[in-house]
Structure formats: structure tokens, C-alpha cells
Design a protein that fits this description.
It is a single chain. By secondary structure, this protein is α/β, with parallel strands linked by helices. It folds into 2 domains: about 5-155 and about 340-355, NAD(P)-binding Rossmann-like Domain (Rossmann fold, 3-Layer(aba) Sandwich); about 160-335, Dihydrodipicolinate Reductase, domain 2 (2-Layer Sandwich), CATH 3.30.360. It has helices spanning about 15-25, 45-50, 60-65, 75-80, 95-105, 140-145, 165-170, 210-220, 265-275, 280, 305, 340-355, and strands spanning about 5-10, 30-35, 70, 85, 110, 150-155, 175-185, 225, 230, 235-245, 250-260, 290-295, 315-320, 330-335. It has a 6-stranded parallel sheet, sandwiched between helices. Strand 1 (about 5-10), helix 1 and strand 2 form a beta-alpha-beta unit. The protein starts with a strand and ends in a 7-residue tail after the last helix.
Amino acid sequence: MSEKLRVGILGATGMVGQRFITLLADHPWFEIVSLAASPRSAGKTYEEAIGGRWKLDIPMPEKVKKLIVRNVNEVEAVAAEVDMVFSAVDMTKDEIRAIEEAYAKTETPVVSNNSAHRWTPDVPMVVPEINPGHLDVLPFQKKRLGTEKGFIVVKPNCSIQSYTPMLHALKEFEPKVVVATTYQAISGAGKTFEDWPEIVDNVIPYIGGEEAKSEQEPLRLWGKIENGVIVKAESPIITSQCLRVPVSNGHTAAVFMSFEKKPTKEEILDRWANFKGLPQELELPSAPKQFIHYFEEDDRPQARLDRDIEGGMAVFAGRLREDIVYDYKFVGLSHNTLRGAAGGAVLIAELLKAQGYITKK
């Protein structure tokens, strides 16, 4: 029997589900054994269920084409086949909360790409390089759920990873005010240019709910565990605008920041260059060797040129300079469906495995 953990993907036919499949098809620690989706896809082979809706620019892995898709609502049947599941289901938030808890209560760990549980007080929302310590809340969550091995961990919004890691590396200087405008790729909406022609030659200055996430989710990453729940940080003050732009993959951010203890430009570049988190220390399979890449060129980072560096799992910064209103400004970039979505969730699962939270059933 394989020593790999058996994994299932909930919402396997959507764009993030497809990305999970490509990342896990040849993963050294995980083996895809179950794909689940809506009842209309259930009973078909994965290839049949997808039809012409494969959205990625890399081919569907051969090993999943003939897997029979399960009904995601048949929780016990799916859970019986797997050691853990990745969740990317397309449901209402109430439905997502209910189904993810149902899987957890079968003693199946859930690593979710969805936003439904990001503010559940005892559910850790994790970027492994930033707040791995929030996993310490899991015993409290398991007590609430009545489980021994089952739990839920979520990853944050994809766009905040284009600027939050850079701010985190500068925490010693106490950022106090941050202005972040994000220019977000269409894959963040699960779209391609083929099925969203209206975005070509266009910018849409509104993404529902995105600005509140951009302003509040970093504060939860920087929060503390108190009395079995995660309490968000009070600072810095973050204000944002979020625009949808005609880019396939890669969220860009224009960021202004002020500090209680203003660093020099050299100190900022030093902290970015030398920042390492627990994934780098543990050498997790999906972890980038260099988490934050800084470009000296004035015209970088660029989504098309830079988003896939280190398998799309690094984050990128450039154009750091002093500002006449704030202390500094810079441009950030991250790959939204890799670091920001499925890849970030896989990295969380690797950390959970490395720390003994996920084991074979």
C-alpha cells in the first residue's frame, strides 16, 4: 500500500479544483483517490464531467481522467475513501460551512480554499510563512466539533498575498497605515478570456466583497489565540480598492505604507531578502526557496513574466521608493490560483502533515 496520504477534492470540476488536481497528480506526499462535485457530475468519469470546461493551460493529468466523480453531498461515502480532503466547492456560504463541518465530523481533516470559515473563531486561516502558530487553536475546534482527528483549516483571500507577506516581513517596524489597490486577474473569478469576453480591453472597478477581505483578513493573520479563539490584530489600518483587469493569472498590488518606526530602504530590502518562514525551514515540497523576490528593474514585477517563478509559490515586489505622503510605496504580485488558492492550500496540508495533524486513518 502507498505511504502517501489518500486525498479527495471537493468541487473538483471548478477552476480551483482543476488546479488542485494538477498540483496533486504527482505530489510526493499525497495521492488523489476521490473526486467529488455536484450531483450533475456524479457517476461520470472526471473527463466526461469536465467535457469542454477544462480551464487551465496545462493538460488534464491522465491518472484522473477515468476516476468516477462522487456526489459531494454523500459525505460518508467520500470520507470513507480518504485521509483528508481539499475543499473548493461552489455553494452558498451557509452550505459550505455545513458541508465542511460534516466532513470534519467524519474524522476527515478539511483544508479549504473557500471563504465561508475564514471568520469562524476557532478555524485557523493560515499562510504557512506568516502564522503557522494559529494551528494551535485546532484542539479547541476539535473539542467543539467532538472529533479526534477531524478539523477545518482555511487559506485567506488570494489578493492579500500580493502585499501581506511584504508587510509581515517588516513587522518589527510596526506598520501603522497601509493603502493597497489590487489589480486582480480574471481567474480569480473562475473565468478565462473565452468565457468572459467583456473583460477584454476593459477594467471593472468593483469586485463584490473584495475590499472588506483585503482590509480585514491580514489583521486576522496577525491576530492572537485567546481563550480558544483567534482574535484579530487592531493594526495597521488598511484601506483598499480592488479592480478586475484583463490578465489571465496574477494579482498585482500598488501599496503605500507608513510605520511607527520608519525603516531605511536598505533595511526593508534586507528583511525581504532574508525572510524565511516555517515552510522554508522544513523544506516542504511546495515551499518556495525564496519566499519574497525583489526586482530592481523599474518595470517589474510583471504578471506575465514573473507569476510562475518557483512554481507560482513565491511572491514578488518591486519599485520600492519613498513617498511624499506615506513613508514608502511598492508594487507587489502573487499568482492567485497557485500561491493564492490551490497551491497555498496544498502548502498548508504539507505543514499539517509535517506537524502530525494529518495522518493515515
